[in-house]
Amino acid sequence: MLVIGIDVGGTFTDVVCSDGATTWKAKSPTIPDNFGEGVIKGCELIAGQMEVGLEDMLSAVERFGLGTTAVTNVLATRQGLRVGLLTTAGFEKHLHLARGSRVNVDGWLEMPWNPVGSADIVGIEERIDRGGNVVEPLNEAAVERAVHRLCAERGVEALAVSFLWSCRNSTHEKAAADIARRAYPGLPVFSGVELHPIQREYERTTMAVLNAYTARALDGVEDLERDLRTLGLKVPLLLLHSGGGAMTVADARESPLGLASSGPAAGTVAAGELARVVGPEDAMCCDMGGTSTDVSVVMEGTAERRQQAIINGLVTGVSSIDVESIGAGGGSIAWIDSRGMLRVGPKSARAIPGPVCYGRGGTTPTITDANLLLGYISPESFKSGGIELDVEAASAACESLGAEIGLSAMEVAYGIREIAIAEMEKAILARLASSGHDPRKLSIVSIGGSGSLFVPTIAKQLGFKSTISSEFSSVLSAYGAASADIRYEKVLPVDLVLPLQSDFAAEFEGLKHALDSHLEANGVPGDQREYCCEADVRLYRQKAFITLPLDEARIDSDQLAQTFKALYAERYGPAAYSETTMVELSTLRVVGVGRTTRARLPEDARGAEPAGQLDPSAAREVWTERETPIEVPVYHLDALHTGHVVEGPALIDTSDTTIWTPPEMSTHVRSNRSLETLSD
Q1: Nearest to 170 by CA among 144, 201, 215, 145
Q2: Residues 409/398, Cβ–Cβ less than 8 Å
Q3: In whole angstroms, what is the distance from residue 375 CA to residue 371 CA?
């Protein structure tokens, strides 16, 4: 029995394979124009380590999980389909107005991105009121004319439909979508109420529009699944969605926007598992890959979520793990701004050409080049993707950039690292502030090949309890892709003031039945299905809500209100809540989870080393300060056993990452080849 997980990053494609006793890992350079090529190459590397043929290995796989950037890349490059929008007549501008919200672009407040041009939005004569009553019947002839004009004359490639109050009565919207599907059978058509049947017309519209925009983003994923089946894979390809669960490619086709944060979600899933193993189940997750750093929070081993993910500046109805992202990854490029100040990111060297030290044509120094020059990375121990690091090239690039502002190569490298630390700290503090968490009660789990060089320093400066890293830190997102359960949600709008007059038992049962059918279609046995219920609760008529767990058998209105009050005061301050303000139940949600074959973190069967001196394998000069380097002992992770303690300053090398232990800190080797770094 084999389980494979893959994470397609901006620089490397990470692969993890486990048979329950042994775990193999590999990195393959990501091919930007054909990410499937990097996936198959990574599988070939794993098969080589196992000393079997690729077909033999794939045929023995019982689960194949993939964290993909396919949708992310379409949104980032804005190369999606041309979308047409049908909406209620008189409300053609509500998507562009975006409720008056603004996004910060390089310090300037701008209107959010517009995925649909004004000429491709058509108002349709129809009207439903807030009670679900028909005020004006749907003009079906107008729908037919609008669809024909948009497709035949305007050249739209996908269609979104979103009418006012369709959450109360969906007949008009569904009828319009059906007319479009009958008229143009091959046209991707997305209905807002089918995707997100919740009050808030703007979120329903963005859901329909962005799903239509990314409707062809999974073509490459389908090609990959077909190629893998040709090579011997017998099980469905499972994709990691933004909510931290897995879904089939066919289900992802129904709502591709749900994959917008696939990679960060996979890392958070794995970080939650690692935090449970080491002990501190409350943790901040810091995923530093090649292009960005993603920050999330795990409480009691479960990732914090948000029900209205913001994607490309647009508020949507996507249920997602709550992630804060910044453009500071190993491949983030250093540059000089118009004021003569050294800056880092958000532009990235990505896989091609990559950092200067990779020798693939890069000319501008990156964070990886800086770490190499400062001594944090060793050219001898670095073996990711078969790349040999060029220290001289990194030095020349830093020297060239520094000449513009009168700095030496080492000063530029030191500045790049300090700026990266400052940017990561800013993102972490923003995430803490938005959720009201105290860093002294949290650990930080390091994810990604570059993370463990930065996170211990950040944890020390911000006062976190400890840093958790692992032998698999650099491929932890791939491990998450191999271990996430199948997960689906169904929601029901309620909008009733507490206390409730109904227990909603029939409604809960209806949502569970829909999820049950979905899980059955995915081949999940009945005894492997689990369900949990949630409620979105808010102060009467407010926009902000808090999601609370719910007992499906009985809704205790008093208990629900008291729990909401406590969490609301914790998040916004006790003065923000008034006892006289009514509390409203906005939405009911049922989450269906299918337990599947999944990877497990391997145990370290060697036990602790007998008492005695733990000698370093080497030493190297590291520029921990700007003026002069210090000699730092270097250990190799393979030589460390459970129970060992490494005193800082020190470096722990592996084949694809390095763990930094700052001065006045110590790294303790825990079970499952995990490491915990603590302040002395």
Answers
A1: 201
A2: yes
A3: 6
Q: Go through 585-621 and write b for each residue having 16 or more CB atoms within 10 A of its CB, e for each that does not.
A: bbbbbbbbbbebebbbbbebeeeeeeeeebeeeeebe
Average pLDDT of the chain is 90
Where does 130-214 show beta strands of DSSP type E? 134-136, 158-162, 189-191
| 482 CB-near residues (< 8 Å, 6+ apart) | 3, 4, 5, 16, 17, 18, 63, 65, 598, 599
Q: Report pLDDT digits (tens) over 242-263.
A: 999 999 999 999 999 999 999 8
The ranges of the chain annotated as CATH 3.30.1490 are 486-594
Which one, of 534, 566, 3, lies nearest residue 235 by Cα?
A: 3
Q: What is the pLDDT of residues 112-150, one digit of tens each?
A: 899 999 999 999 999 999 999 999 999 999 999 999 999
A 10 A CB-CB count for 542 gives 12
Query: β-strands 630-636, 283-288: how paired?
Result: unpaired
**From-to residues of CATH 3.40.50 in the chain:** 81-211
Nearest C-alpha neighbor of 329 from the set 351, 352, 346: 346
Per-residue tokens: 146: 């609008």
User: Is the Cα torsion angle 352, 358, 364, 367 positive or negative in sign?
Assistant: positive
Third-level CATH fold of 486-594: Dna Ligase; domain 1 (3.30.1490)
**Of 197, 205, 207, which Cα lies nearest the Cα of 94?**
205
- CA distance from start to end of the chain: 43
Domain 81-211, CATH: 3.40.50
SS (H, E, C) 198-221: CCCHHHHHHHHHHHHHCCCCCHHH
| β-bridge mates for residue 344, sequence order | 334
Q: With cut-offs at 50, 70 and 90, classify the pLDDT of residue 612.
A: very low
64-89 as b/e: b if 16+ CB within 10 A: bbbbbbbbbbbbeeeebbbbbbbbbb
Q: What is the pLDDT of residue 444?
A: 94
Which residues, 6+ apart, have CB-to-CB distance to 525 below 8 Å? none
The pLDDT confidence band at residue 171, using thresholds 50, 70 and 90, is very high
If you ran DSSP here, which 8-state letter would residue 50 be given?
H
Residue 312's Cβ-count burial label (10 Å; 0-12, 13-18, 19+) is middle
Angle at which helices 476-483 and 262-278 pack, to 10 degrees? Answer: 90
Query: Tens digits of per-residue pLDDT, 358-414?
Result: 999 999 999 999 999 999 999 887 766 678 899 999 999 999 999 999 999 999 999
What single letter denotes the amino acid at residue 212? A
* pLDDT tier for residue 320 given thresholds of 50, 70 and 90: very high
| 678/460 Cα distance (integer angstroms) | 8
Let me know: does 73 contact 246? Beta carbons within 8 Å.
Answer: no
SS3 labels along 274-318? HHHHHCCCCEEEEEECCCCEEEEEEECCEECEECCCEECCEECCC
β-pair type (108-110, 103-105): antiparallel
What does the angle CA 452 – CA 458 – CA 464 come to, to the nearest 5 degrees? 105
Q: What is the pTM of this model?
A: 0.89
Note whether 614 and 637 are within 8 A (CB): no
Contact call for residues 241 and 305 (beta carbons, < 8 A): no
Tokens (6 digits) for 99: 């409720």
